[in-house]
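step: validate -> pass
step: tokenize input -> pass
step: predict -> running
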Amino acid sequence: MPNALQLLRDDHTEVKELFKQFENAEDQSAKQIIAERAMMELEVHSRMEEEIFYPAVRKQDDVEADMMNEAKEEHHVVDLIIAELRGMNARNEQYNAKFTVLSEMVKHHIDEEESEMLPKAAEEGTERMEQLGQQMFERKQELMQEAQNPRKRSTRPKASAKTTSARGSSRGREPAAGRTTRAAAGAAKRTTTAANRTTMAAKRTVTAAKRTTGAAASGAKRTARAATGRTTTSRTSRTSTATSRSAATKGRPAAKAKAGPSRSKSSSASRGKSAGKR
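step: predict -> pass
step: emit ->
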């Protein structure tokens, strides 16, 4: 009869080996095949733990709720990254980097489980771990069949009341992987929409700034032209006034000069007339 703790450790070893194969593979097609196998193993492993093993560990009196909650949240993040990888082309330059992040996160998760959670579960005794191991082994076989052939209906025998209580009823519910994929797609769509709105707002801001700059430049040009016109008019007026004054000044002495000889001639004529009379 399989032991729950050994079953989990075997899964951990297998997925870490797949991570190592991915690192050493040089062909991208080979990397994709290895990545797909690792993601399938992770999804099956996570569901098996969340349905059977985690609820059993939570029931222990002195178990830390934070440890269990953190483990479940790490599963959630792994599901999100897997959904993103499945939505990417394996030729995408970010594919390998994203899978490497996934592998590092899973390895950290494995270290915490094996150092904290599994020793805590072992306190329940060998018999209890064998009971859980049998349930987990059967459920893993079902999940592997579903993962390899999604259209094939599960042939799992009807679960006992105790098993159903531990793993929770899943009838009529969407598979966790499907919910995660849909949630990730929705989040990506909302992010894209927000980015588009931000881009449009930035474009409107740039357009407004250009209009403001153009208006300021036009105003500056009009002010400069007006100032130039006033300066030119003022200079022209002053020049005209100066010219008029200069002409007037020159005209007065000339008039006096002309008037002088005329009076002299008149006086001489008058004196001549007076002398003839005498």
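step: describe -> Helices lie at 4-24, 28-58, 65-86, 95-122, 126-148, 161-167, 176-277.
step: cleanup -> pass
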